[in-house]
Amino acid sequence: xxxxxxxxxxCSTMVAQSQDCNYTLSGKIIDLHxxxxxxxATLIMIGEGKTAESDIDGKYQFSNLCDGTxxxxxxxxxxxxxxxxxxxxxxxxxxxxxxxxxxxxNAITLRASIFxxxxxxxxxxxxxxxxxxRFSSASLGEVLNTLSGVSSLNTGNAVVKPIINGVxxxxxxxxxxxxRMEDQEWGAxxxxxxxxxxxxxxxxxxxxxxxxxxxxxxxxIIVTEASKIAVKDTMxxxxxxxxxxxxxxxxxxxxxxKSYTNGWYGSIQGTLRRFGDYEAPDYILSNTGNxxxxxxxxxxxxxxxxxxxxxxxxxxxxxxxxxxxxxGGASDQVRSINNGIPLIIRDFTYDIDAPxxxxxxxxxxxxxxxxxxxxxxxxxxxxxxxxxxxxxDVRRSSNDDDRASLDLALTSQTLRLDLDTDNTDLFNLKTxxxxxxxxxxxxxxxxxxxxxxxxERFNLGLYGVADVSITDNFxxxxxxxxxxxxxxxxxFYRSSFWEDRNYDELFPEIIVEEFxxxxxxxxxxxxxxxxxxxxxxxxxxDAYKLYANYSLASRAPNxxxxxxxxxxxxxxxxxxxxxxxxxxxxxKVSITLQKQGKTFGFSVNPYINFINNFxxxxxxxxxxxxxxNFQVWEYRQTNATLLGVDIDASVTLSDDWNxxxxxxxxxxxxxxxxxxxxxxxxxxxxxxxxxxxxxxxNLRVELQSEYTFRQNEFPNNNFQAFIPETDSFxxxxxxxxxxxYHLLHLHTNADFSLSKxxxxxxxxxxxxIFDTNYRNYLNRLRYYADxxxxxxxxxxxxxx
Amino acid sequence: xxxxxISILAAIAITGLVFTGCSNDDDAPAPVNEEEVITTLTVxxxxxxxxxxxxxxxxxxxxxxxxxxxxxxGNLAANTTYTGSVVVLNETETPAENxxxxxxxxxxxxxxxxxxxxxxxxxxxxFNLDSDGNILGTTFNVTTGAASTGTYTVTLIHEPMKPNxxxxxxxxxxxxxxxxxxxxx
Lengths: 800, 185
Prior knowledge:
heterodimer, A: 800 residues, mainly beta, Immunoglobulin-like, Maltoporin, Chain A, 3 domains, 22-stranded antiparallel β-barrel, 46 strands, 5% helix, disordered N terminus, B: 185 residues, 15% helix
């Protein structure tokens, strides 16, 4: 599906013209990275039945061609297959550059390689299958955390939610295999429902430029794709087993793929992952185990002219939440924070009790494409998703009550039609439309008022993106998208809140019925959003590229921002949404200078993001309840500015040694109040030394240093609370960020050949080597416990 | 442009399909009666002679914006011993649910704490015990000293570590925390 950004070098020598069909097309196949020639590449002239192969010097030739435009598919065993458009005018010479498989390359390309498949003027980062293999027992958030500009908002260590350039949740779009994940991503403690083992590669776009997928990615888009399956008669698989000391658990995952030369293929994959209580250096983090089960399969046919694929995945994850984090009001907060260690520490167990989450996600899609001559590639896709989310709080009567406190089922169905035209010599146009129907049902049998109401949402989207190559080195991309949302909700408000908020005067017409001290309302909300992108890419000196991109993103408020109204246990605070919100509008400008090279490479990516109507949640008052005093956090719209820079660099020190560096900085300000934004990732830098020896069983040893500075800019949300025990008011410090910390990790692995077709890869990793005590500003449970201590893990991967 | 117009038409057609395909029975959802909430706490203090004093805090909207309403029947007498008991209710249900029964039933998982603040000269002791012989505190004795004023705080902790010396080392989480302004005369 993927066509990589290719620098097209036309070394054309125009020869005399004539009307005969006896022209030739010739040239070389070249490695994009070091300009070496690639012998053994197969070139297929689509629709013409002509093939050619590159010789030992990388040269190929087609003869008996007429003037006109041809489509060439270039295939090489070590490269991603690509399709090029070539205009033949007389005898034509043309060289093609192919992107080598990433595993062949050194660490710079592994850490920050660029691909232009999703957008052409946004710098994109990629995580390859090889890298993903090292994260077999990790979560998607942990994998993304290794990229510059990405950090994570954690709830303990199992709920890891990506933050891109300082923003998260609904502002980060996750596209899983062409399907936008609708997994209640609005909540800060809702992690993406994706098993990393089901993914072939990940592309990260730090901006809203990929309008094909969405127009509301204020932060960015994470695109995960399944591995490519070759069109040949083969059957292969891999099994990956991991065992780890911290959490005393592990994972097992297997993939089996079968394909045929006629284009048919099928693949099945499953993962089991089980951990008990994790451990901080000094104590057990009670009730932090997790149990993940997932299975996915796909079957399809892939031809040049057409293809169809059906895909299904099931993901279920049961995650324990640190028991000591489930507390009451301000007095409990003071006790927990001042105690220094969790107030509840029990013996190690694999059992997962309340508080816990139990998330199930079903995803089904069917997708077909057809290459139409003179038009381009038309793709039609339907997907169905169901996300069931159960959250178990500690109940007042815990003995005989194992009901969830929150029970939401979100069903989404989407139809997409995309057209990718490539038949024009001047520009490429991608256009399409999508329609989505979404329904959320909150089960009332929980005996707890609904946090998110029942609602239906309709979304209609329309986009177009065109790119034009002004010269061989200069490309301009421009695009626009329109989205319409209609939300029809059935929300119960408490009468006291309804009146306190003046809703009784503002929205008297939406009242349906009154039940005692509750009011049933039927809010109907409409949002019309426009998003756009404009960017350029300039290539110079062969190795340097300069990207500049402006993107306009518009995001409709999510259900949590609109409808929240009540106590949020895991945060020990009352959260209030607002029905009156408008869409958030973000203007982001991002520039990247990139140099690729065998010995030295880097990318520098400064950006600034102006967000109007930015929805933030912040404390407004202390509310007295019979359960004690709680801080009230209200959502509010403001204008915000986020700016920062991400840097990647890599130096090859010798044949075997490589050094890499990564640095991310982001600052965020609330412009209307002139205050820093909360939860901004602190400055961090990652440095590593890699030794790799191809002769010695492909031995790879990596020593990695991770330094996170203290966040010095934060809003002061501390408050005073009366503590009866001490008969005094005490400060509840919920703002002060923890100190800076430095962690060292070691990763090693080596390959052992088992037979002609099977290979064993053995890996040993130690994270947090010195068992350092630390707390992470972006971990929502940092008030209660230290982060993870040392972990030693062993990986065995067999490919066959 | 023409292409776009066709696209829009197609979009509308497709949406129509999707929407009709999923049209549902639009029944109004049922309200949820909050079962987890405690709305009311009443401390009843009965002296051997003299008048009974009740201290009540009622918060009918739970964590909603309305503050709890306090009702203190009168002042305590100086140098008097009272027999105390505490009752907690969920009054959002009809009839009100007596949660004290649940607390007593799960006695190992609950404990009431009583703390005096300000100048209030008061001693709370003689608590009833749970099945392990640790304090439960649904009944107790209160002994007043000289005339004084101050606060009297009642706290119900869920899943405390027992035995303990005070709320500070009890762990668990607060189910109720009510502070009354009390006068001894």
